Amino acid sequence: MRLPGAAGATLAADAFGPEDGSPVVLLHGGGQTRHAWGGTAQQLGDAGWRAITVDLRGHGDSDWSADGIYSLERFAGDVVAISDSFDRLPALVGE
User: Fold this and answer.
1) Are 3 and 62 in contact (CB under 8 A)?
2) Could you write out the three-class secondary structure of the chain?
3) Where are the domains of the chain?
4) With CB atoms 3.0 to 4.6 Å apart as the test, which of 25, 26, 44, 85 could cross-link to 37 if both were Cys?
5) pLDDT tens for residues 33-50?
6) For residue range 69-92, what is the model confidence (pLDDT) as tens digits?
7) Closest CA relative to residue 84, chosen from 6, 13, 16, 28
8) For position 30, what pLDDT does the model report?
9) Left, alpha or beta for 57 (phi > 0: left; psi -120 to 50: alpha)?
10) CB 81 within 8 A of CB 90
């Protein structure tokens, strides 16, 4: 699946669990991808959560920044855009 990011970027993501489950977004650390969360996301999905793993910009299958900006503010903007794409605020988990 694809999710919106800041400044026109789109971000690759995988979803686990029921579509109507409470959303939890799993964000990887630097140099990793959404696949680092696969086992955790599956367990959360099996427990009824809607677990979403995301490749942050410049990682995995997500867009690179067209303007070359990879600041913490831009990554934070991506997290806001991801959160806004849900009908309720997700829980955020990062490493």
Assistant:
1) no
2) CEEECHHHCEEEEEEECCCCCCEEEEECCCCCCHHHHHHHHHHHHHCCCEEEEECCCCCCCCCCCCCCCCCHHHHHHHHHHHHHCCCCCCEEEEC
3) 2-94
4) 26
5) 999 998 999 999 999 999
6) 999 999 999 999 999 999 999 999
7) 6
8) 86
9) beta
10) no
Residues 55 and 63: their CA atoms lie apart, in Å, by 9
Instruction: Supply the pLDDT for residue 82.
Output: 97
Indicate the pTM of the whole model. 0.92
- Residue of 54, 57, 91 whose CA lies nearest to 72: 57
- Alpha-carbon distance of 16 to 58, in angstroms, equals 23
Structure tokens at 28: 């990887």
Cβ burial, residue 7 (10 Å; 0-12/13-18/19+)? middle
Q: For the chain, what's the residue count?
A: 95
Type of residue numbered 68: G
- The two tokens of residue 27 are 């964000």
